[in-house]
Amino acid sequence: MTEAANDKLIVALDFARYDDARHLVDDLSDSVSFYKVGLELLFHDGLALASEIKNDGKRVFLDMKFLDIGNTVEKAVASVAELGFDFLTIHGTDTKTMIAAVKGRGNAPLKLLAVTVLTSLDQADLADQGIVMTPQELVLKRARLAREAGIDGVIASGQEAAAIRAATGNNFLIVTPGIRLPGGDAGDQTRITTPEDALRAGANHLVVGRPITAASDPRRAAQTVLEHIARA
Ligand code: C5P
User: Fold this and answer.
1) 180 pLDDT higher than 60
2) Catalytic residue at 65?
3) Which of these, 30, 85, 161, 212, has the minimum number of CB atoms within 10 Å of its CB?
4) Percent of the chain with pLDDT strictly greater than 90
5) Residue range 74-84, pLDDT digits in tens
6) CA nearest ligand 1 atom 21, residue
7) From the alpha carbon of 117, which atom of ligand 1 is closest?
8) CATH of segment(s) 3-231
9) Ligand 1, residues at Cβ distance < 6 Å
10) Cα 93 to ligand 1 centroid, rounded to whole Å
11) What is the C-alpha to C-alpha distance for residues 100 and 119, in angstroms, rounded to an integer?
12) What is the pLDDT of residues 34-46, one digit of tens each?
């Protein structure tokens, strides 16, 4: 598989136990070079595994989705920035949180990604929160605010990637979860896209969890996703 395809795939290590996550990383070995450690694994040696992955020369995305008062976010991001990982998420719901995160990151190489609207939410979920915008309008508004705040990129669905790319230009990362192969089980995701559609719409990286982690043969599933990426 080409290095370019490999660089675009981020496998989400959504396991509650270190051993299960470690087993998957070993199984995928040289085919995957970028992993996401999120809230599910964090409390069971997730950070230890993240460090092991980094020490193996691979990249790590810490999906912590910080959202708090500015002082707390700034200090939490500063603390993460010392660890030497590659990507970190914060919520992109307000400018204060994002400015605090940028300040906390300082000159560290850590890239900050703002979660625009979770890919599990649709129009009705936004209406429940009293939001009258469509998911796409809200994603775009938050992407613009993130860029103005100095954030490096956003997490958004592939369905919104083209509009974000048009609004924010080429020097802004778009990372898309909610990726499914044609006919794949959506699970709790609503705004899903195929790898080809997300990449053609301008996504830089794809986050793939269950299509690989829940497959009977994860290594083969990762190869299939990489083939779809290479085709795009
Ligand atoms: O299993 P699946 O491929 O749906 O996993 C998607 C991953 O991306 C999960 O780890 C989820 O937490 C994360 N994510 C998401 N939507 C966002 C931000 C992160 O699905 N907006």
Assistant:
1) yes
2) yes
3) 30
4) 91
5) 999 999 999 99
6) 118
7) 21
8) 3.20.20.70
9) 12, 14, 38, 63, 115, 118-119, 155, 177-178, 187, 189, 207-211
10) 17
11) 24
12) 999 999 999 999 9
Spacing, Cα 231 to ligand 1 middle (Å): 23
Separation of alpha carbons 206 and 10, rounded Å? 6
Q: Are residues 9 and 222 in contact, defined by beta-carbon separation less than 8 angstroms?
A: yes
Let me know: does 34 contact 7? Beta carbons within 8 Å. yes
Structure token digits, residue 98: 């994002």
Handedness of CA 182, 29, 206, 132 (dihedral sign): positive
Q: With bands split at pLDDT 50, 70 and 90, how would you rate the model's confidence at 189?
A: confident
- Cα 209 to ligand 1 centre (Å): 7
Mean pLDDT across the chain:
95
> Which pLDDT belongs to residue 119?
83
